[in-house]
């Protein structure tokens, strides 16, 4: 089952993949998915049971076919099909190899082409493969926790996978990053492999050290035990493997570059630029959002010369007693007599785009959906999960939301999901159809976004599911998460500062573009802002009450604009991940192509040292860098070699306090 992958060690710390790494992914594909006689001795890297028999015993005897096509200059697609002549079940493996990154990915599809229901198809593992470490030493598993509205959200973890160790991972409640995170870095001496599972539902993964030098990795939809009707088709989660040489940090930066190059959505042909946003959103006391209140806030920001990229209309713009009552998808005529278009036109005249919040997968009682289409709801008239796998429901949602986006002038579609769907999915399954409701819902969810983007080629989508609870790779290929977590402070309490710092530290290794924001509070405003700094960022303040220091607001927004682009570059942790009151935490973003970068450092309230001197990463040792403290505006010129070998002295006198430093290579 296993194959050995030997990765050449690199002598210099580099971000670009080397030829040995690029060859490894192609070799993996060639070894695992061959046809002909060799297929009987080389099982594929996925597995399932059919009529109780393992796929490794069945597939060598089924009819096989293979085709290859170039998707573009950097990607080649291979399709391998296995057909059971007795029942008509077709298993179609579709894989993509990248020429510019050491990456291979695949999805497996199962279709009943026969005239009768299939036997039971079960225990489908999208990946079932072994990895052999090439030298003495142990496997090290690096991963992050998912989001659970906590200071610990996205915290990085490391475990040694010794002989006999079994590690199991699965999210909670059917949302893919709820508590767990479907991205792992398996390291071994000299290199390793990144493993990712893209499934916006209930996945599970196991890492099993079953032999002296072998690690077995299995992952897929958590529950599959079903028959397929004639013509019916399901799919597995997306699986990605990215091989690397060198250390874990280098591997994560190759991953970040691959995410930017091949995954981050490109509405209108370009990846999203950093964005400064503002949301009144009904979060301030006594505010019931309306067209008039939106104009009031926009007018104050215009007067104060705050140039926004996006205005954010969050939940509650539809008819409802409170925002949670979703299911009537139209603008409340009492508060928006001329629709949302009145707001979008007002913004567009000020060169600002509009974000609007939706939640199509949930319907509350006594709303249009539960009153008029209860058969579409898993919960009926009492409300619950909207069954996207129902074709009639899917058609209605696509057409309704398409019309709202078009007629109301919406630029960015924000989709939330505030209940856990797993129990509803499983309660809807018959004993011989377990996992099917989820599979159809997940496929329909992805198809919904694909269709909206097909109808609106410039549309950017924001993924949200009670914060950052659904940011698997399939979701991130269609969207960006503008709110990485609902873990936020409304008043600037110091308890939130380490948690938000830790979230930036943890999430940045995996997701290049994400968002956060703060609510204006005079207490610790600078540290609060910097603790949540991100490529998409908001500082929201209640303009009705007065008391906002607009000079400071403009200064902080200007600092964000100066460094925001750097956050899309390479990411380097400069300290361990720490949340304690006596700690420092620091990191660096670097753009070698542009020759600039930024450093963020935080001294906590009980830390006794005012100086941290981290060694920087990724710089040109032969260059000289102009290093600017954005608080004091003081600039030093420092050789790259010195910054790499001796480090940069960061002085923070306040407890707690922060530093924001920008550097640029001298020409």
Characterization of this structure:
The chain is built from 14 helices and 38 strands. The strands form 7 sheets. Strands 4, 5, 6, 7, 10, 11, 13, 14, 18 and 19 form a 10-stranded antiparallel β-sheet that branches. Helix content is 22%, strand content 31%. By secondary structure, the protein is an alpha+beta fold. α4 runs parallel beside α5, α7 (391-408) packs parallel to α9 and α11 (496-507) packs parallel to α12. The model is unreliable at 1-13 and 35-42 (pLDDT under 50). It is globular and about 75 Å long. Among the domains are: 267-360 and 388-417 and 461-566, TIM Barrel; 570-665, Golgi alpha-mannosidase II (Immunoglobulin-like). β4 and β5 form a beta hairpin. The relative contact order is 0.10.
Strand content: 25-35%
Q: What is the CATH third-level topology name of one domain?
A: TIM Barrel
Radius of gyration: 26 Å
Q: Please, what is the average pLDDT?
A: 93
What can be said about the biggest beta sheet? Answer: 10 strands, antiparallel
CATH classification, class level of one domain: Alpha Beta
The computed structural class is alpha+beta
**What is the strand tally?**
38
CATH architectural grouping of one domain: Alpha-Beta Barrel
Shape: globular
User: Helicity, in percent?
Assistant: 10-25%
Number of alpha- plus pi-helical segments: 14
Q: Note poorly predicted spans.
A: 1-13, 35-42
- Termini gap: 53 Å
CATH superfamily of one domain, called what? Glycosidases
